[in-house]
Amino acid sequence: MYLKNSQYQWLPTINSIASALVLSVGCILFHSYVLSASVYAAEQKEPIEVNGDQVEYYHEKKEVVGKNNVSIVYKDVLLTCDKITVNLETRDAVAEGHVKIAQKDAYFTGDKISYNFDTRKGTIIDGYVNAKPFYGKAKELEKIANKDQYELENGYVTTCDLPEPHYRIQAKQVKIYLDDKIVARHILFMLGKVPVLYLPYYVQPLKDRKSHITVIPGQGHGWGYYVLTSYRYYFDDNNKGDLLLDYRTKKGLAGGVNHYYDLGQLGKGAFKFYYTHENDNLVFDKTGEKKTRYRYQARHRWELGEDKDTTAVLEFNKLSDRDIIKDYFYNEYEELGDNPDNYLSIITQKKDYSTELLFRKRFDKFYTVVERLPEYRLDIPNARITKDLPIYYKSTSSAVYLNQTFDTNAYPAQKDIDTVRIDTYNQFSYAARFFKALSVTPYAAVENTYYSRNRWGDTNQIRTIFNAGLDNSIKFYKIYDVETNFMGLDIHKLRHIITPTANYYFRHQPTISPDNLTQFDEIDALDTRNGITLALENRLQTKRMQGDQMKSVDLATLIVGTDYMFRLDKDNSSLKSNKFNGINFQLELIPYSWAYILSKMTVDTKHSMIQTASIDLVATGGDNWRVGIGHRYENAESTKNHLFTVEGMYKINEKWRVRLYERLNALDGALEEQEYTVSRDLHCWIAELTYNFRNSSDQTVWLVFKLKAFPDYPIGFRRTYSRPRFGSTGDTISYN
User: Fold this and answer.
1) For position 454, what pLDDT does the model report?
2) Where are any strands of DSSP class E within 508-655?
3) What is the pLDDT of residues 288-334, one digit of tens each?
4) 333 in a domain, yes or no?
5) In this structure, what DSSP letter does residue 712 have?
6) How many Cα atoms occupy the beta-carbon half-sphere of 156 within 13 Å?
């Protein structure tokens, strides 16, 4: 009976077992699904993974609720909170309790946040945002949908991360664009709880290190008491600048604007204007009226052509007098002098040639300038002209209308001197190589120059010069198997490279002597030459780990070179016997990545004396300390200099640091200039007090408060020691 009916009795049993297994597996899968916090959206959207101590799924509402230590990673967004409710259809979420949503290097927090994972839009009441270098709080904070943008209503932003910031920009509306800029409307600039400034509109690009507002008070001999102010405006990424308003008790009120623009395909540039009406009781001109002083400057750069192989550069300068730059922009005067250029240059760079069209014009009559109206130049670099033989051809040609104008204030007055000049230089060379190390290059060239008039007024003059020479160089090297870290030098093998060169050159006597030509530039000064340049370069290299690879680095380079001049014709009184034309030395040492030494020296062999010498030593300990020592020596007939410079910075602690600069004239033992700066870290601000002393009569002191997030200020004021960069050889002696 049992066996007969067993098949019928087993069926419900099997069905029950199967149902139980299915139900159990389903429960396990569902339970695993909920507890593992893997909740997948409909229509195969990217999953929203909810992790927490307790996670529950409500099928009817299609919601997932997570509690305690909740975290969600969705694309590049990380959300953490105490409790969250996620609707799987709408992808909306409501998070509560210590909510934090992080994206890129920014995050915003609050007690309760509504957020959509698809649109990435979120809204917070009484929220806080951290988007370094800015921090902000607002009654309502919104994350804009599908954009790296935050909007704050009735709140503030600041670069101070304290709960009660030292300063803040309070506004009705603030927009933060990550990695771009911050925009605020109707702002109050608050120091603590005290309002100090109202602005209707404020923009601060995050990639711009210049502060939005700069105020520098001080006192100096030439200016008296003064205050220099700058307001940085920002229309958009393509139009921004600085408004300047200055007051000096010995000069009066002055102001200006520095505007920077970008026209896209039409190029970019800058326009600068500065104006002052100096006090009538202090500065007079010949008429007794108040003195108006100004400077205009415009620069524009434009890349043309489909391949951007043509570059046009325009610079225009107009000054009220030649001392305006020295009196008001001393840094610029020390670096560039007091004679700014006016020109238009159009340069085209092709594979086989390059051209330049140059216009140079004088606009201020108190300068002496050689005008070029215009000049056209064509350069053909070394081009191989045969396949079988290494024969090369290069050429340089130019045509120019030259007009030398003189300072109208000079006495006696001089008339302008002009001429048309057409010059062409053509050279053929043969590049031979022997034993893979010896390079021999003989060459011959002819230069012809046409002048519409010479120095004496003779017209249609043609000058011809024949040139020839032989360039020779050879390279030897040896590798030493040295492995040591003695004194921290980190040496992994040493390679010694020796490169001697001997270049012979000969220039025949020109058919027109330079004495019969007006000297506009170096082309007019060409004269006979006959000599050989000798040089010996020694270079010591090792290998050091850079990144994840071992690369060759220079430890030391020594170059010694001289010109040996052969005797010229007996009728030429300039050189009647063989002689050396001075010896040049250059030594560059880079023993460590943080230390650099560059030394140069020129020895006058005729008088057995040092003609020029210089040495620069730079060492840096990152942000903790820096030392720069320089020496300049020059002994010429018209110029004698013997200067020592010292520049240093030392970080005393996290709050204080000091900086100094001194320049000593060893000829008379006088300190030509001293500058001392004390800096105090004020958490989000840096206060700098600087004292500058020049020539015993010019003493200046100024105070600067600047934001740590935007430490640069647009006012060109400070005088600093111009030290060489690591690995930079400066004006390298070249004999190749």
Assistant:
1) 94
2) 529-546, 549-565, 579-592, 595-604, 609-620, 625-635, 640-651
3) 456 889 999 999 999 998 888 999 999 999 999 999 998 888 878 87
4) no
5) B
6) 19
333: its two tokens: 């005067």
What is the rounded CA–CA span in Å between residue 305 and residue 664?
52
For residue 258, pLDDT over 90 is answered with yes
- Asked if 316 and 297 count as a contact pair (C-beta separation under 8 A), the reply is yes
Residue type at 608 in one-letter notation: S
Q: Across the chain, what does the average pLDDT equal?
A: 84
Q: Are 56 and 34 in contact (CB under 8 A)?
A: yes
Give 580's strand partners.
Answer: 564
Number of Cβ within 10 Å of residue 15's Cβ equals 10
Q: Would 374 be classed as within a structural domain?
A: no
In 10 A of CB 122, how many CB atoms? 26
- Separation CA 449–CA 397 (nearest Å): 10
The whole domain housing 135 covers 43-205
Give me the phi and psi of 241, to 5 degrees please: 175, -165
Question: Residue 718 domain-assigned?
Answer: no
How far apart CA 204 and CA 443 sit, in angstroms, is 59
Share of the chain above pLDDT 70, in %: 87
Alpha-carbon gap, residue 91 to 86, rounded angstroms: 7
pTM listed for this prediction: 0.76
DSSP string, 401-431: EEEEE--TTSSS----EEEEEEEEEEEEEE-
- Give domain status of residue 69, yes or no: yes
- The structural domain count of the chain equals 1
Residues 458/445, Cβ–Cβ less than 8 Å: no
